[in-house]
């Protein structure tokens, strides 16, 4: 409707932010594996826990930095537009991290429901 090219503007701009978000989630998942197995390796060797997931986290972090530094190659846009496209990723992450903490402080019973698996009812 705005006369923009559907591929070079709309598709690349919206997917560029999604690409960064998915890579951040993958890096956090690798880091969570390290945290999960930190005290109990459950019989796995040091090569699998924590070396492999920690190296995956470090490499993904390097890739994320490279993607953010060269984001104009994905979007074809200027620095200001790219900054506005990247900005939602850390903001949404912060909101997602702070909202459960607020719920836990203000309404502990509601927080318990958030942290309970309901799959056993089905």
Task: Outline the structure in words.
The protein has 122 residues and is mainly alpha-helical. The protein is built from six helices and no strands. The protein has helices at residues 6-36, 47-69, 72-75, 79-86, 88-106, 108-114. 7% of the residues are buried. The mean pLDDT is 85.
The backbone outline, from C-alpha atoms, is: flat
| Extended strand count | 0
Largest sheet, strands/sense/barrel: none
| Mean pLDDT across every amino acid position | 85
Helix fraction, binned, reads over 70%
The helix/strand class is mainly alpha
Question: How is the topology of this model organized?
Answer:
Elements: H1 6-36, H2 47-69, H3 72-75, H4 79-86, H5 88-106, H6 108-114
Helix pairs in contact: 1-2, 5-6
Provide a concise account of the structure shown.
By secondary structure, the chain is an all-alpha fold. The protein has helices spanning 6-36, 47-69, 72-75, 79-86, 88-106, 108-114.
